[in-house]
Write a structure and sequence with these properties.
Length: 191
């Protein structure tokens, strides 16, 4: 019970609690949610569409210029199958994606997404950058409220009470070299 009082002390005095979410945790959530078992995030096509697909793979998260940075490898084709051969355009290159995190209804999302393609400025690369920009801002979400609920509502062995998280809000997000620092405010009801 003393640990619970210590956790709640900042809330009693009107200050938020700082939650540090390291990039490795976000990277794992992103890999599970967006990249799936194949390790690829398809922005066009599927593994079955041999001649017309686009995907990112091997994402690495970090910080750059006060924003989240995602480095990933792109592979794509925009071709037609003619006599069993893929005829058309395709390319593979590394990408650097920078975005600003924001809080929305229990989720950390990304906005102001900028995509750079290493040494590529072809029409194909520009279309890829546009597709990734639109796709990532729509698909990325880190369920921070659900994670907080899972941790704070976990039953305590041998204790006769239960905890319930209410009024969870993120009032500030700071991007640091090691992690996202979230200032959170919440009510923890002990029953």
């Amino acid at each position: 019970m003393r640990l619970l009082a210590w956790l709640l002390a900042p809330c009693l005095y009107g200050a938020g609690v700082e939650l540090q979410v390291q990039y490795t945790a976000i990277q794992k959530a992103m890999a599970r949610q967006m990249f799936g078992e194949s390790g690829r995030m398809y922005v066009k096509g599927t593994p079955a569409t041999r001649c017309s697909f686009a995907y990112l793979e091997n994402p690495m998260l970090g910080e750059a210029e006060g924003r989240i940075e995602i480095r990933a490898h792109f592979n794509g084709k925009n071709a037609a199958s003619i006599f069993g051969r893929c005829i058309g355009f395709g390319d593979t290159f590394d990408m650097r994606i920078k975005a600003s995190p924001y809080y929305d209804a229990g989720l950390i999302r990304l906005k102001d997404v900028d995509v750079e393609t290493a040494g590529r400025d072809s029409l194909y690369a520009r279309k890829v950058r546009a597709a990734i920009t639109e796709n990532l801002s729509k698909r990325f979400e880190y369920k921070v409220a659900d994670e907080a609920r899972r941790i704070l509502e976990r039953p305590q062995a041998g204790e006769p009470y239960k905890q319930q998280l209410q009024n969870f809000q993120v009032s500030q997000i700071r991007v640091t070299p090691a992690a996202l620092l979230l200032t959170i405010e919440f009510t923890l009801v002990v029953q």
